Every structure is written in structure tokens, then in C-alpha cells.
Amino acid sequence: QKLKVKFAEVDFFIHERMDIRMRMISDTGKHLFVPDTKNPESVSENFIPYNEYMHLAKQSKDFQKHLSEICVPLKYKNIVLFGYLQVLHSDKMDVNDYNLVLHAANNFCNEIEESDIFNQSRHRSDLMDISSTGLSFSHPQSKHFGKLFSIGGSILFEIYESDKSLGTFRAVVRNIKPLEKLFRIGCQFVHTA
Length: 193
Hints:
- By secondary structure, the chain is an alpha+beta fold.
- It has helices spanning about 1-5, 20-30, 50-55, 95-115, 145-150; strands spanning about 10-15, 30-35, 70-75, 80-90, 125-130, 135-140, 155-160, 165-180, 180-190.
């Protein structure tokens, strides 16, 4: 609510398909912070470059209406990009404005993680096969199996060696095959932003 009072436009873009802004954030790994659209020097090297922003902004019909823009990613568990928070304003913005928007986005992501929007399995699965492009693992049937795994669905998982985590990864389920008492889930790794 604080953002809507302070800035001209506030928009949460949440979608499984990337639009141009989301793709730019994903590809560069940087946030979009243009304090003054009339001044290329206002954009720090830590953010998406001014010329890339201008190419994007000129495609918008409301381009002339705003003097500044902040756009920060929304990520589940700080791994899976599921959208962005965009703030447009008719005045110049500064680093305090950027920090406020970033804080709001982080709070939103924390609320998403704490909710039951995403289905989770607490079951530890055995790794059956792994390659540079994917892996397969076994998982028992449960009443939530259909919610957890579907062909073409995305999953987020951790790989452990003994009790040490080797990292959190994202994959797309490519096949599900029944075994004697379990199911074999075949997945293809997905690049995460």
C-alpha cells in the first residue's frame, strides 16, 4: 500500500510465461532501475543498461508519461523467477526508492513462500540416474502425487550427498513411469535466473 501512495503506478506481473521485461531480468541477472529516463548517466552499471531499457521503453504506449522506473524480480526461494514488481513514476526516483521497492518485493516473496500456494513433498527420494541435462528419481504414490508431479510441470528440489546439500535445482518433468512399489520421475534441468 505504501508504494501505491508514493508512486504513480505499481504493478505486480506474475506469470509462468516471460514477457520482455521478465526475460531481460532473467537474461542479465540485473534489476531495472532508471532514476531519470532523460539522463542516461543516472543508470548505474549494477543495473540493466540505459540503452537496453530505452529500446524496451519505446515499445510502450505510455513511455512519455513516466520519468523513472524500477523493476525487480519476484523469485520463489530466491531461485525460480515467477514475475516482477514494476514501479513507474512521474518524478525522478533515487536509491531510497529502489530500496523501498526491493524491500516490498522481498516481503511479497516471503509471504508466497509461507503460504500453501506451492505443493511440497517432504519425502526424500532416491536418485536413480543423473546427467548434465537431467535426472530421474523414485517417489512413492501418495494422495498428493498428482499435484506434485505432472508431465510438463516444473519442480524445485534439493540434492543431498549424505546430509550435505549440493544445491537447489529446477527441472521440468518429462516422464513418469510406474515401478513395482514406486514411480520413476524423469526430469530435464531448467536454467534458473
